[in-house]
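Run log // design_07
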């Protein structure tokens, strides 16, 4: 998993509440267990017209936001079914950070396991960030995980809270496998000891 220390990128505004995982990645794209290639299905029902062409009114199709790395979204982002394909699709598109006032628990935890930083802010601060994100080509935010701050295009900063363990994992690029491998020496020592005292095992 890639480390997340500081991200400066275009932020796309999605001021919609209750964006669920079916909206993020429709069920038609759930036939794969690969983490790559799902970016094309991200928000597919809103992003494409019936003939399959891009919907020019959808925010991520607008020229200023086609390379967005940050989403600023409404309350209760990631609700609905617990499909891990949702963060896979976001990451494959290029989204590394989602900012909202609240997230569904399973989606929130799945983000950390896949290298996406979900940030919870107050409703007042979300309004400020939505305003920043609505500036088209000037909609650039800087997210500093180490100092737990978001900086807007005008230089203002917003602080955010995050669980210390999750912060550690993101800063060091540690998913569940990476966390286990941090203890590889202890695991190897245990296996050698176990093999000597229980050779039949």
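design_07 sequence
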């Amino acid at each position: 998993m890639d480390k997340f220390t500081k991200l400066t990128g275009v932020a796309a505004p999605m001021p919609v509440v209750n964006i669920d995982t079916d909206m993020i990645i429709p069920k038609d794209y759930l036939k794969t267990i690969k983490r790559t290639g799902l970016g094309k299905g991200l928000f597919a029902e809103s992003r494409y017209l019936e003939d399959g062409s891009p919907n020019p009114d959808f925010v991520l199709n607008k020229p200023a936001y086609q390379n967005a790395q940050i989403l600023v979204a409404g309350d209760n982002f990631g609700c609905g079914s617990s499909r891990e394909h949702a963060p896979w699709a976001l990451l494959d598109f290029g989204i590394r950070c989602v900012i909202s006032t609240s997230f569904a628990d399973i989606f929130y935890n799945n983000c950390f396991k896949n290298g996406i930083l979900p940030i919870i802010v107050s409703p007042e601060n979300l309004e400020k960030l939505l305003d920043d994100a609505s500036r088209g080509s000037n909609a650039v935010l800087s997210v500093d995980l180490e100092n737990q701050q978001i900086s807007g295009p005008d230089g203002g900063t917003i602080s955010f809270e995050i669980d210390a363990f999750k912060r550690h994992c993101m800063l060091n690029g540690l998913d569940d496998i990476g966390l286990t491998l941090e203890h590889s020496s202890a695991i190897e020592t245990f296996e050698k000891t176990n093999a000597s005292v229980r050779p039949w095992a």
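The chain has a mean pLDDT of 92.
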